[in-house]
Specification:
- α4 (about 120-130) packs parallel to α6 and α7 (about 180-215) packs across α8.
- The termini are far apart.
- Helix content is about 50%, strand content about 10%.
- The longest helix is centred in the last third of the chain and has 39 residues, at about 180-215.
- By secondary structure, it is mostly helical.
- It is built from 9 helices and 5 strands, in the order βααβαβααβαβααα.
């Protein structure tokens, strides 16, 4: 049984959490085996231990594997095993504590040449996430990629949710070219940077004007803000920077 655990941020207790998920799945299998025995009446003529546990000598469990998909361009800096989380690192003690390792797919750890091993669009999504903070690498990837590579609505939703790509698709569109998705992301980032710079410039001008009124006309900060026609909400923000 393969379980998929999606993460958009680092979880520092992932080994314990995933261990619990897997243990619950094994407990469910034991419970289902016992229920099946009771329903079919096959629990008769078995030993006391088998009857009490509901799990018989010839019963077997299906292996459970949980795979963590880390939908972030950042490095995973959290523990990947139960032993790493222990306050005690004495090897003698740890030898008596069963370890539990998490299995992970993290874009930052995947080599460029290995993305081609994915057989679905997940490879392109993870590549986009990996380079979402490195526009030059992103451009190089698009330059080397095959023409006509597309993103569907699900892929776009994942990118918008995980890396805030803010890619827009028309309601009647089922797919969009990856290059167009990248262009939109760059355009959005540029607009945000411009808006931020404009806001910072405006705030500097306002602060200087307030200070000049306070110094030259001996106004209080509140009087200067009112004289400049600055809103109450903006005025409170500026007051904290005076």
């Amino acid at each position: 049984m393969l379980g998929i655990e999606g993460q958009t941020s680092v979880h520092y207790a992932a080994p314990v959490r995933n261990l619990l998920y897997d243990a619950l799945q094994y407990a469910k299998q034991v419970e289902q085996a016992a229920k099946s025995r009771r329903m079919t009446g096959s629990h008769k003529n078995h030993g006391r231990g088998e009857f009490l546990s509901g799990f018989y000598r010839d019963d077997r469990l299906i292996p459970v594997i949980t795979l963590v998909l880390f939908f972030s361009p950042d490095a995973w800096d959290a523990p990947r095993s139960l032993h790493e989380m222990m306050a005690v690192q004495d090897p003698v003690i740890l030898s008596m504590v069963p370890d539990y390792q998490i299995h992970m797919v993290a874009p930052a750890e995947i080599r460029t040449e290995d993305f081609g091993k994915f057989r679905t669009s997940l490879g392109d999504v993870l590549t986009f996430i990996k380079y979402s903070k490195d526009k030059q690498k992103m451009q190089e990837w698009f330059r080397d990629a095959k023409e006509g590579r597309m993103f569907g609505k699900k892929e776009v939703d994942v990118l918008n949710a995980c890396v805030n790509a803010k890619i827009r698709m028309e309601s009647n569109e089922e797919e969009m070219d990856m290059c167009e998705a990248f262009r939109q992301m760059i355009e959005e980032a540029t607009e945000q940077a411009t808006a931020k710079a404009t806001k910072q410039t405006t705030e500097r001008v306002q602060l200087n004007s307030i200070k000049n009124l306070m110094h030259n006309l001996h106004m209080t900060a509140e009087q200067a803000i009112a004289a400049l026609g600055i809103s109450e909400a903006e005025g409170e923000k500026l007051m904290r920077r005076l």
